[in-house]
Amino acid sequence: MPDAKILIVDDHEDTLYALESALAPLGYLLGRATSGDEALKQVLRGQVGLLLLDVRMPGVSGLDVVRYMRRVEQTQHIPVILLTGFGLDHVLTSAAFGLGVADLVMKPIDPWALRTKVRYLFDSHRRYLDLEQEVRELRALVKDHAEAEIPLPRGPALPHPDAHVPVQRAGRAHNGELEEERT
C-alpha cells in the first residue's frame, strides 16, 4: 500500500486545517473529508491506511462510519482514531472501543501526542498489510509446488529463540526425540 493516506474527517474546516498542520511534519500523504458519507466513499475506494474521525458530525456520525467499516472485509482492519470535543462519557467510550477503535482523543489535540500515535498506528497497519501480502504469496507458492509435485526446499532448522532448547534435526530424531547439538 505505497500510496496509502491518512484520512482526516471533520465537519469544521478550521479543525481539518489544524489536524493537517499537526500531521504535516510526518510526511505522510493526507486526505480530508467533511462528512461521514464522504469518508466512507474514500475509504471504500481504498488506499486509506488510517482514519482520524470526528465523532459528532451531521448526518452520518463517526461511530456510524466505524460500524460500517467493521462489517466490510476490505476496511475492517483500518485503524481509527476518534476525535471528540464534547468530552468523554462511558457510553461513547464503550461504544468506540467496542467497535475496535485504536484511540479516542479529546479536542483540543496535543500535536506531539497525535503525531506519535499516528506514526505508530499507520506504520503498524502498513506492516500488517505487508505481512498479509507475504502470506498470500507464500500460500500461492506452496499451492504451485503442491500442484507441480515439486518438493519444497528444506534448509537447516532455525535455532530456537531460547538458547536452552536443543536443536531438532530433521530426519535424525526418532519418535519426537531431540538430539543434543554437538559442538
UniProtKB/TrEMBL annotation:
Keywords: Phosphoprotein
Domain of life: Bacteria
Pfam families the record matches: Response_reg
Domain Response regulatory as annotated: residue spans: 5-122
Keyword Phosphoprotein: yes
In-chain residues carrying the UniProt-annotated modification 4-aspartylphosphate: 54
SMART domains xrefs: REC
PROSITE patterns linked: RESPONSE_REGULATORY
UniProt-listed InterPro entries: Bact_response_regulator (IPR050595), CheY-like_superfamily (IPR011006), Sig_transdc_resp-reg_receiver (IPR001789)
PANTHER family reported for this sequence: RESPONSE REGULATORY DOMAIN-CONTAINING PROTEIN, STRESS RESPONSE REGULATOR PROTEIN 1
Protein name: Response regulator
